[in-house]
From TrEMBL:
UniProt entry keywords in alphabetical sequence: Cell membrane, Membrane, Transmembrane, Transmembrane helix
InterPro entries: ABC_transp_permease
Native organism taxonomy: unclassified sequences, metagenomes, ecological metagenomes
Any one Pfam family match given in the protein's UniProt record, by short name: BPD_transp_2
Alphabetized GO MF terms: transmembrane transporter activity
Protein known as: ABC transporter permease
Segments traversing the membrane: 42-62, 96-114, 126-154, 174-192
Length: 201
């Protein structure tokens, strides 16, 4: 629900207060001033630096702190967490604020570091991709970095094959889906064993 509220706020600003006067009537927000743009230290997108700092920070938080342990317990079973005396609602709200803050930081890095403006498509659907990445990495922070790199290569490769070979960029999405279904299939056979029983007549 909050996603749609934020989306409509951006659209309202795009059509009104922040509308670019030099866009010749085209609805868009003006590009950020130079002091609102992130620099490129060593020629690297600033988001890479933040991501490389966040990965060990999140890993330590989840593995070695009480709050991280509480998140893991609530994620496995709310009833178990309640029985252990944990305030489940408080833990959920705290986790939502933390994850929302990190997502907002990612959006700021995209808007100020790459796009240099704010659009209603700043997220680009990466939230849903992030769910798949986290699941494939089994919620392991170091592995998430590797899986994210693979998916980033697929996304960039999709644009490349579209321009070079006239193949739809959706081929990358198709490949991501194939990877996901294969992993789901292997996960099923790892977790469960198919047993064929002969019933007596």
């Amino acid at each position: 629900m909050a996603n749609y509220i934020a989306l409509y706020i951006v659209q309202f600003l795009r059509e009104g207060l922040w509308k670019d006067p030099g866009a010749k009537g085209f609805p868009q927000i003006a590009r950020f001033a130079a002091n609102a743009r992130l620099s490129l230290p060593l020629g690297v997108h600033f988001g890479w630096i933040i991501a490389l700092l966040l990965i060990p920070a999140v890993y330590i938080y989840m593995r070695f702190t009480k709050q991280g342990y509480e998140i893991a317990v609530v994620g496995e079973s709310e009833k178990t967490a309640t029985y252990a005396g944990m305030n489940v609602r408080k833990i959920i709200m705290r986790t939502m604020f933390l994850s929302g803050g990190i997502a907002g930081l990612a959006g700021m890095l995209q808007a100020s570091g790459a796009d240099r403006t704010l659009t209603d498509t700043v997220a680009g659907g990466v939230g849903f991709t992030a769910i798949i990445v986290a699941w494939l990495a089994n919620l392991s922070s170091p592995v998430i970095l590797l899986v994210s790199l693979v998916f980033a290569i697929l996304e960039k490769g999709g644009g490349y094959i579209q321009s070079m070979f006239q193949i739809s960029a959706s081929a990358a999405d198709l490949l991501q889906g194939i990877i996901l279904f294969f992993v789901l299939g292997f996960e099923f056979f790892i977790r469960y064993r198919v047993v064929i029983r002969n019933r007596g007549v």
